[in-house]
Amino acid sequence: MLLSISFNNLSFRFIRGISSSLPFVLHQHPPTCSTKCLNENSHDSREETLISFFKSCSTMRELSQIHAQIISAGLEQHVYVIGRLISFCCVSENGSMDYASLVFEQLNWPDGFLYNTMIRGLGRVGRDEDALLFFKRMRERGKAADNFTFAFLLKICGHMTAVELGRQIHCCIVKHGLESNVYVCNTLIRMYGLFSEISAARQVFEEITSRDLVS
Question: Where are the PPR repeats (predicted)?
Fold first, then answer.
């Protein structure tokens, strides 16, 4: 498949020595006194308490302290809790994609949401090739792509001015039965507009069964 050939020419820049880094994080930012309360609570209460910490988190230093508490509470494989941590790294202006990659690589069973979050974050900071390789890994691990996955990928194709890759992803969208999804279609129209592919953009527009104001 042409999409696979395109991926083979990309280089990946993942952090090395990740396994030895997390103990360093815990050492550098030891759990605060609130960890004692966490350990005394039930498992569900600990999850809720940790998740509540993210509401006031605004810096990577604060995030690393929360991460240390997550590790101390034994929840470093809890997909939802770790998902909040990775989301901060990927979406916040004060986040860090290197830190997100470090945490992601420690997960035994990352779900589709986490792959989408990483693809979105890498695209946001201009690491487009890494984002595409995350999509490749997502497919290899049998995780289903959804409308968010393809919307993020189409934006990346626009950044890269990768016309042919954009067309290939459009084919994948059709294969997944998402060619009528308004969110995906709007992103397709924007991508083809960036490529000055007006006829392709118009065709996508004409095939939208339920248009919104963006369309």
Answer: 111-145
